[in-house]
Design goal:
This protein is an alpha/beta fold and 312 residues long. It is 44% helix and 20% strand. The strands form 2 sheets. Strands 6-7-8-3-9-10 form a 6-stranded mixed beta sheet, sandwiched between helices. A 4-stranded antiparallel beta sheet has the order 2-1-4-5, with helices on one face. The chain has one domain: 3-Layer(aba) Sandwich (Rossmann fold). It is built from 11 helices and 10 strands. α4 packs across α5, α5 runs antiparallel to α6 and α9 crosses α10. The structure holds adenosine-5'-triphosphate and magnesium ion (MG). Adenosine-5'-triphosphate binds next to β2, α2 and α11.
Length: 312
């Protein structure tokens, strides 16, 4: 990445992707050094004039389910794509289990599974073919491939539908198929960008149950974005509220609710005797704060629509 602005710290295994061959040997040592699954410091990313990520600091602890929340256009997907190495890291630092996303892209990719916001399954292939494709891309050895594909499909309850074309799947089945695609490489970090968007309540619960079952079995770390505050409340150990490219609030859902209540009480507002704030109130508080400070602008609306049309 020639446009990378900040020099990273020296790598114990040497610079660049060429170091990847030796990474296995030092993996355990490195992991012992850090409890952090993901670490971003001062991450910046712009699309032309649009600053999508603006000085993002983020730490995801190994083993936790971490929710990245925030309004449309906050920069969540962009940040996630930087962490997955699909976008470069033009400025700042991103590490995944100690590996620098700018310098050790293959090592980072081998550690993670990714369910993108946009559709990633191919409608013209069967479920099994889709998962097999990901197994190849993610370097699952030919010897293990069939077995691992079958396990991933089983883990999301798609064994009986595995040999049907994906275009015959319901929305919930497609999302579970994409989960299988992300799980087939046995990732230590699972990144999910709005995994349950557009699903009915039963399908949403089903996606989460499958995520949690794999997590309980493997101890993998989960980084998830969602607009559903009830999911964040129920399934995330900690959440961060992102707005205009950086984090504005961080904690367990309970901590964030308590903090808002205390702030309202301290402000002498009517809140003292009112019902306790919800996570949605915290979300509105953070998202609304930005609008008051800077005034909602047209570009934001335009950008959000562009995001919406790209997705929809
Ligand atoms: N490929 C792109 N080209 C131009 N601008 C982009 C592109 N992708 C994102 N943006 C802009 O970057 C900003 C952040 O977008 P991003 O998709 O990261 O937000 P988000 O938090 O994921 O939003 P949402 O909740 O709608 O998914 C927005 O202003 C968006 O319009
Ligand atoms: Mg997004």
């Amino acid at each position: 990445m020639s446009d990378r602005a900040t020099a990273g710290t020296p790598e114990p295994t040497g610079p660049g992707d060429t170091a990847d061959a030796t990474v296995g040997a030092t993996d355990a040592a490195r992991t012992a050094e850090t409890e952090e699954a993901v670490s971003c410091r001062g991450l910046e990313y712009s699309f032309g004039d649009t600053k999508a990520v603006s000085g993002l600091d983020l730490s995801v602890r190994s083993g936790e389910v971490f929710g990245l929340l925030g309004p449309n256009g906050a920069g969540k997907t962009t940040a996630i794509r930087c962490i997955t190495t699909l976008l470069p890291v033009p400025a700042g630092m991103v590490r995944v289990f100690g590996h620098d996303a700018a310098k050790e892209r293959m090592a980072v990719r081998r550690l993670l599974g990714y369910v993108p916001q946009q559709l990633s399954a191919d409608a013209a292939l069967t479920g099994r073919e889709n998962v097999t494709l990901f197994a190849r891309v993610f370097d699952v050895s030919r010897r293990e491939r069939a077995e691992r594909v079958a396990q991933a499909l089983e883990a999301v309850d798609l064994t009986s539908a595995a040999d049907r074309l994906a275009k015959t799947y319901s929305g919930g089945m497609v999302r579970r198929l994409e989960l299988a695609q992300a799980l087939v490489s046995a990732p230590r970090l699972l990144m999910l960008d709005e995994p349950t968007i557009g699903l009915d309540p039963i399908a949403r619960t089903s996606v989460w149950e499958h995520i949690n079952a794999v997590r309980n079995a493997t101890g993998m770390t989960v980084l998830v974005t969602t607009h559903y505050m009830d999911e964040a409340e129920q399934y995330c150990d900690r959440v961060a509220l992102m707005h205009r490219g950086r984090i504005h609030a961080l904690g367990t859902p309970g901590e964030l609710r308590t903090e808002l209540r205390e702030r309202r009480v301290a402000a002498g507002g009517k809140a003292a005797g009112e019902t306790a704030p919800t996570l949605e109130d915290v979300f509105r508080d953070v998202a609304g704060r930005g609008l008051e400070e800077e005034g909602g602008d047209f570009r934001d609306v335009r950008n959000t629509r562009r995001t919406a049309s790209r997705v929809g």
